[in-house]
Amino acid sequence: MSPISLQNGFVECLKQQCPSVEGCYALLEPRNNECCYRCTGCIRNGVYHASDTEWTEGNDPCRIFTCKAGVVTESKLRCYTPCSNPIPAAPGQCCPVCAGCFVNGQKVTADRSVTTTEDPCVTCRCNDGRLTCAKQACPALNCLTSKIVHDPGECCPHCRGSAKYFSPPKGACMLGTHLYKSGSQFYVDHCTRCTCANSAISCIKETCPVLECPSEHQMTVPGQCCPQCPLVEESKASCSYGGRTYEASIMLLQDGESWKLDSCKACACKQGKVRCAMPMCPQLNLPCPPNSKLQHPEGQCCPRCVESDGVCTVFGDPHYRTFDGKLYSFKGACKYQLVSDCVDHTFSIRVTNDARKTKSSAWTKTVAIKIGDLKVNLGQKMRVKVNGKRVDVPYRIANRVDINRTVDSVIVNTQIGIKVLWDSISFLEVSAPSSYRSRLCGLCGNFNSQIKDDFTTRRGRLLQDPQQFGQSWTVGAKKMCSRAPRIGNGDKEKRCRGRKDHRLCNRLRSQIFDPCHKKVNPAMYYKACLQDMCECPTEHCYCEVFMAYAHECKRLGIQLPHWRKATRCRTVWDQSTSPATNLARRLH
């Protein structure tokens, strides 16, 4: 269930992140006041165990129990010692250990397990400089055979998809599409013997020995559980891998030495045979949680979910979308602190809003960035100043700031990771790396992933009214404020109800932006567009809303390359090169 609240005329929704149920074909309906499906757990000896958990019982640390979608699988660990002088297992531990944490040239760390390429079911872990390796049998699967997949290089097969099956008759058990009576025993395969008791299935699975020959050389005798290696050849003094020969001699690679093939795989030459190992990538709960993205860093083996940069957006008759996603409107026409590092004071960004001769509206006019003794001012018509002096773009100060220009914006990249995008009209976007999380303050909020406390004032007071919140971040003298004299309301009301405004703003709901509608709901942007058109002095105020929507789509990987042409929204360059503008320049 997504909590919903109404703030400043905009609907705010918070979506709950449900745990993954991929591969579960024994789904349980959500309980009262819950929105997430759960996978059926297991009960053994009166104790409940959640699906995808494992445990031991009694005094035998080598005896492992696993719960998978309501099925308990019991198996024995097979120890593997990749060293010549293993240290006996400590009390309460199953396997002996090796001094040093290397397996076939691959380093094992406390937070990164390693498996061998000959047997991906072997897992090696390092603890206090000591290596433990063991092999565990795969749990029995409770899904249709047609839904079982075994990815290359993976230890265990898994079920693809998820579903809720009908419950079997009382006391009976169902595994896949097979129904079993209570008290019956049956074999799933040559390695797995199962029992049905009171609608619960428990299985005992044999764990096969660890093999050291390449997987392509392993063979399984029909009717038997475990594969075998062919007869061991006479030990050699050289290794061949991928067509390349590694000689075990003093001049070249000595027997026992290792080499790294890529960011994932390392190999060693052992008595004429290649032994390889690679790290085990942690299972990711995809899609990544909110405010994070899937990334595969260069030079690293495993992809991971990393925190995304926070983005604060200002557009139109100022609408603000905070780092944490709160959308509100504040029509102040003074100078304000947009965002600042309120912990270490490494930077601040201030905006000056201009009323443009309207009675109640405002638009961002200039942006002032301060990082230490460096000041960058962004104005209208792509004017840029650095430390008070006008500069041409592109402009760069080594290891401090890079200022570049795109087709519709000026982009400022700083050495501290803060990035500013400004279209020289009224659209502004500030990006902050995750290192600034919970350190920021101002109109853009505090960047702590909590939307509910974004309206926190300079003095730490939490407000509900966006106007009071906005005024609390006013900076500078009163002369920085601009506001036209008040006029009657009739003209405004007439324009706010104008059909033309609705027609222009309705383009957000058209085919132009359709590729993004499933990712970004245009409803709030449509409402913001109507607000902007009420006192629009140029009749093109809808364009800044469209730009904000297009940028949000771009962040989610959806490109809308033709939206400007389709909506007749010009860039500041188009405006500065119009015939009227060029004529005015010539006359002056």
UniProtKB/TrEMBL annotation:
The highest taxon in the source lineage is Eukaryota
Gene Ontology biological process terms from the UniProt entry? positive regulation of BMP signaling pathway
GO CC annotation: what is one? Answer: extracellular region
Q: Which InterPro entries match?
A: Kielin_Chordin-BMP_Reg, VWF/SSPO/ZAN-like_Cys-rich_dom, VWF_dom, VWF_type-D
Q: Which residues form the signal peptide?
A: none
MF GO annotations:
BMP binding
Instruction: Domain (VWFD): give its ranges.
Output: 310-482
**Which parts of the sequence belong to the VWFC domain?**
99-160, 171-230, 237-306
Entry-linked SMART domains:
C8, VWC, VWC_out, VWD
Q: Where in the cell is it found?
A: Secreted
Report the principal subcellular site.
secreted
Q: Which UniProt keywords apply?
A: Repeat, Secreted, Signal
Which Pfam family would be a valid example here?
Answer: VWD
Protein name as annotated: BMP-binding endothelial regulator protein
Taxonomy of the source species: Eukaryota, Metazoa, Ecdysozoa, Arthropoda, Hexapoda
